[in-house]
Amino acid sequence: MIPVRGFEGKTVAVFGLGRTGLTAARALVAGGANVALWDESPASQDAAMAEGFKVVDLRSADWNLFDALMLSPGVPLTHPQPHWTVKMARDAGVEILGDIELFARTVNAAPAHKRPKIIAITGTNGKSTTTALIGHLCASAGRDTRVGGNIGAGVLGLEDMHGGAVYVLELSSYQLDLTSSLKADATVLLNISPDHLDRHGGMEGYIAAKRRIFLNQGKGDTAIIGVDDAWCQQICTEITAANRRTIWPISAGKAMGRGVYALQGVLYDATGDRVTEMADLLRARSLPGRHNWQNACAAYAAAIAIGIPHHDAVDGLMTFPGLAHRMETVGKIGRVRFVNDSKATNADAARQAMSSYPKFYWIAGGVPKAGGISELTDLFPRVEKAYLIGDAAEDFAATLEGKAAVRMCGSIEVATAAAYSDAMDSGEDAIVLLSPACASFDQFADFEARGEAFRAAVEGLGKIGAKAALG
Question: Which of 326, 365, 264 lies closest to 128, judged by CA?
């Protein structure tokens, strides 16, 4: 745990008692703060009280007693409208912040020789894979590495800091909205495509949130920016003009005079005086496809930015085991391989997996994002058949009509069994791909739970077979 500094003897209200909120409350108390916790879920209140925390109904509390509000990132800050806690905090002049901001202030309060290295990663797609990959590169090179934020453990639940540690943090747009003091030694902005527009009031607000990752960087820091989409390319141009930090563009599709790029799976380093061929990414078994080549470029650049030797970074790319729920093979029965890409919660993320296979049996659906799957039309010829689940099933079926065969399945268990049966009947090597292009909240707590349900369904098929599962 990282005890939070700067709130000794002060009282901090904490709203939202999931992983982030409870972890922050523990860290605040460890640092000497008083906390008043609240969540609208009775079960969450009970869990907090079981740990000995004081639960206070913030709707009737005296907000003049609070020095800050620690807001969980899932709670609306501005759109579609500010949450009632946000309104009450603002009316009382109470500062609103998140756990990443608490971490940042704790780092900034430490003596210079005790401050760790920080690598911060964001982007619409690929950030979890890239975060895990950077963590692997750093750890493989012998660094004391802690990985967290929007992936794995909440940042304040990681081991306490020291001058030799490296914190590799995945940051969502929600977390960045609540962060103002973070100064990262290396930042990564992978890509931007429309997502979470309801929470940011549109594309302009979403981009502004992502740009906050570059706040406070200066001389000696490095910004690593994907330039394969127009929005990030514009950001790269704009912050290059500011001419403060080192800026390395990354690309998985074009050669560049500076930065790191990949062409046909070969990674090139143009961060120095000349371009050097560094790695054949086709040998990196857990990094298939062009989108993973961009992730590899970003990870390599971030690693060398904090002083990891180039050859160690390359070695790490080759030994990366992959990330759960992202193009993860969870089983093989006969000639049928099952790929769990549950983390594909929007169409752009699903495109990355769908582009990696010439033919596949596709399980999709859930809570759809704006635009649904219409932007994937060019990939529909690869779909042998689609097995649709969740709220999006009818809309997805309409989009696929005349372009791919469809079966309405309802549940992930039925979809998995049906896809396996059809794949098995083909008599060929086949891929059953769960890449939902949707959020999971209609049927599951999160994408991890959805991926685990798929894994369990595959394991069940191995025991009883598709025909039995389908009844």
Answer: 326
CB 214 within 8 A of CB 190: no
Q: How far apart, in whole angstroms, are the C-alpha atoms of residue 439 and residue 368?
A: 6
Q: What whole-number distance in Å separates Cα of residue 204 and Cα of residue 208?
A: 6
The residue annotated as part of the active site, out of 127, 291, 343, 385, is: 127
What is the model's pTM? 0.82
Name the residue among 274, 327, 279 with its Cα closest to residue 303.
279
Structure tokens at 352: 């990355």
CA distances from 252 to 99, 133, 294 (A): 33, 16, 5
Annotation says 127 is catalytic: yes
Q: Residue 54: what residue type?
A: K
Catalytic residue among 79, 183, 196, 403: 196
Distance CA 379, CA 286 (A): 22
Please state the separation of Cα 49 from the chain's center in Å.
Answer: 30
Tell me the pLDDT tens digit for each residue of 179-222: 999 999 999 999 998 877 788 889 999 999 999 999 999 999 99
CA distance 433 to 382: 12
Residue keyed to tokens 């549940």: 411
Q: Is 196 a catalytic residue?
A: yes
Q: pLDDT tens digit string along 317-329?
A: 999 988 888 888 8
Distance CA 448, CA 38 (A): 26
Sheet arrangement for strand 360-365 = 328-333, 336-340, 430-434, 360-365, 383-389, 406-410
Token digits of residue 208 = 């502004």
Q: Catalytic residue among 83, 136, 150, 343, which?
A: 150
d(CA 138, CA 302): 9
Q: Do residues 176 and 121 lie in contact, with contact meaning Cβ atoms separated by under 8 Å? A: no
Could you tell me if 126 and 188 are in contact, meaning their C-beta atoms sit under 8 angstroms apart? Answer: no
CA 228/CA 248 separation, integer angstroms:
13
